[in-house]
Amino acid sequence: MNVQPFLDISLAALVIGVALFTIIAKDEFSAVVAYVAYGIFLAIVWVRLYAPDVALTEAAVGGGVTGVLLVMAGKRLDVSATMVVAKKPSVAFSAFVAACSILLAGSLAAVILSLPDAAPSLAPQAAAAAQGPGAGLGNPITAVLMSYRSFDTMLEKVVLILAVVGVWSVGADEAWGAAPAPFGPATPSDALLFLAKTLPPIGGLIGVHIFWTGADEPGGAFQGGALLAAMWMVAMMARLADPPPINSRWLRLALISGPAVFLAIGVAGAMLAGHFFAYPSALAKPLILFIETFMLLSIAVALPMLVAGPAARKGVR
Amino acid sequence: MPNFLLAAAGLITIAVALGLARILRGPDDIDRMMATQLLGTGAIGTMLLVANATGVPGIDDLALGIALLAALATVAFLNVVELEPDEMGHESRD
Amino acid sequence: MTPLIVATLVAASLVGIGVYGFILHPHPLRKLLAFNLIGGGVFLVFGIVARRGSAAGLPFDPVPQAMVITGIVVAFAASAIAIAIIVRLYKLEGGVDLDPALPRKSDGESTES
Amino acid sequence: MSLAIDAFTIICVAAGVFFYVAGTIGLIRFPDSLSRLHALTKADNLGLGLVALGLLPRASNFPDAFKIIMIWVLVLLSGASAAQMIGRALRRGRR
């Protein structure tokens, strides 16, 4: 007897149920908690779609770091709660929107199900990239990210920096250059201190491990960077480290190091290997790992700064 | 054997998902966080079993990653809860 | 093939649920959550396409999967900006309502822009 | 030999599932937050621990087995700290 179809259907029901609850929950914080649960379920769905790399990213970024961001914001907005609440939309309008949404979902499902059986695929090209210019990478996804679509990946790092700049620029003018608000109370509990002193060393090792195996197995700079970011946030929650001032030089250098190194090597590739973002084939794998190391640093610094929010005035949280 | 492990994984997922009823019922936010904590642990157990039963590469690393992040959201929540009301502060408009 | 049909239904439902919540919820935090649900559904469509496009000896097409990985990180960055704006709005206005018709704290004396 | 290993796995994993289910029932049924916390930690420690123990003999090499143990240790570490913090928050009436 095969239990898999039954498990798939229950998992689907769970994901849809949690997503629905995110929408219909009465208070904001329940919705946030349901969203964190949804992230965990979604990671399991990605495993079922044979995408362990994506599952790891979803669990680390979608579940872990986003969870921290939403829980902290949600709880703060919620405590201060509940400001003016807008009038509820009328029943007729709600029904109309519901009908439109069902129509949209139905047509989307129909479109996906009617895709041609022999799906068009870029897998052969990507596999060729993994053999050719992305030489020596056993993980086809890393080969795609770093070689076949390297320009995209570089720009994606730029987007991350732009997002950090965007978050910073939301802050008050007088606070510019100061540090973002600390992550926790001035006197953290002993249990948290213990956790923050034991977990980050282990977590740092695991982050580097996942980054390193990413060349040949599921993992990579995104996932490893997200884990390192999470460990830095644990340390900041226990006030072992506070968010650095946003005008500190090392912070800004660390933020741009990923795309800067990527771009520099891409330009060098235009001169040495014939075209933009080409790697000399003998050096491809070491070069890719070199770039990825700086990407790891960029991501590990950018994600906590995004969670920390804009600079705050002294003594103001 | 793989079927037994998969069935166990499914049972665990469904069991901890039932715990999500706590999100619905509360009564306090801290109870809601406990439900996600249980869900995270359940997901790790599920991943371990699935990794062993199906042999898709990398799921053990995935379980390792989730184990590392298991308590992150809960700890973040408790940290905000423990803030003194004046630390919570709302920027005064001056 | 069955897992793909189930995944299709999940992806489509997520998009539908997300659109519904995005339009109807007055609270911007809830709009953000709903928007992320839509994003999750779209990423799943990529995943389904990746799984269908298995070729060249790979069990999946790595190109859409790689795009989803960058997409998840970008979605997080966008959420972070949205949260920063919502928190700032709350600090300035004492509320996060998007309805311009409602009375607000700062009416008539906007010292900070 | 392999039969004994299979039997060991089945017993341990089944016991692990039992503790997960027990933890869930406790989380749903117990009347107050502190006793629900007590139920939660059973699932954290024993449920996952027994599942990990049951899978240990099936690991093909040492690194895999080490990973399984690491996962359990990490969950113990963060779960215990979080439980301690939850208890403290409850005692201080912060919820």
Task: Tell how many strands the DSSP assignment of chain A holds.
Answer: 0
Low-confidence stretches of chain A: none
The end-to-end distance of chain A, rounded to whole angstroms, is 58 Å
Structural class of chain D: mainly alpha
Q: Kindly state the mean pLDDT of chain D as a whole number?
A: 85
Basic shape of chain A: globular
Shape of chain D: elongated
* Proportion of residues in helical segments of chain D: over 70%
Helix-strand sequence of chain D: HHH
Give the overall pLDDT of chain A as a whole number: 81
| Strand content range of chain D | under 5%
Number of strands of chain D: 0
Number of alpha- plus pi-helical segments of chain D: 3
Descriptive notes:
The complex is a heterotetramer of chains A (317), B (94), C (113) and D (95). With 317 residues, chain A is mainly α. Chain A contains 11 helices and no strands. Chain A has 2 domains: 1-120; 124-317, no CATH class. Chain A is globular, with a radius of gyration of 22 Å. Chain B has 94 residues and is mainly alpha-helical. Chain B has one domain (2-82). In chain B, helix 1 (2-18) packs antiparallel against helix 3, helix 3 (29-54) packs antiparallel against helix 4 and helix 3 runs antiparallel to helix 5. Mean pLDDT of chain C is 80; it is low at 107-113. Chain C is mainly α and 113 residues long. In chain C, 58% of the residues are buried. Chain C is 71% helix and 0% strand. Chain C has helices spanning 2-24, 28-52, 62-93. Chain C has a single domain (2-93), classed as Helix Hairpins (Orthogonal Bundle). In chain C, helix 1 packs antiparallel against helix 2. The N and C termini of chain D lie far apart (52 Å). Helices cover 85% and strands 0% of the residues of chain D. Chain D has one domain (2-91). Chain D has helices at 2-29, 33-55, 62-91. Chains in contact: A-B, A-C, A-D, B-C, B-D. Chain A binds chain D through residues 189-192, 194-195, 198-199, 202, 206, and chain D through 70, 74, 77-78, 80-82, 84-85, 88.
Summed up:
With about 325 residues, chain A is mainly α. Chain A has two domains: about 1-120; about 125-315, no CATH class. Helix content of chain A is about 70%, strand content about 0%.
Question: Topology of this structure?
Answer:
The complex is a heterotetramer of chains A (317), B (94), C (113) and D (95).
Chain A: H1 4-24, H2 28-48, H3 52-79, H4 91-113, H5 123-131, H6 140-148, H7 150-169, H8 190-213, H9 221-237, H10 249-272, H11 284-308
Helix pairs in contact in A: 1-2, 2-3, 3-9, 3-11, 5-6, 6-7, 7-10, 7-11, 8-9, 9-11, 10-11
Chain B: H1 2-18, H2 21-25, H3 29-54, H4 59-69, H5 72-81, H6 85-88
Chain C: H1 2-24, H2 28-52, H3 62-93
Helix pairs in contact in C: 1-2, 2-3
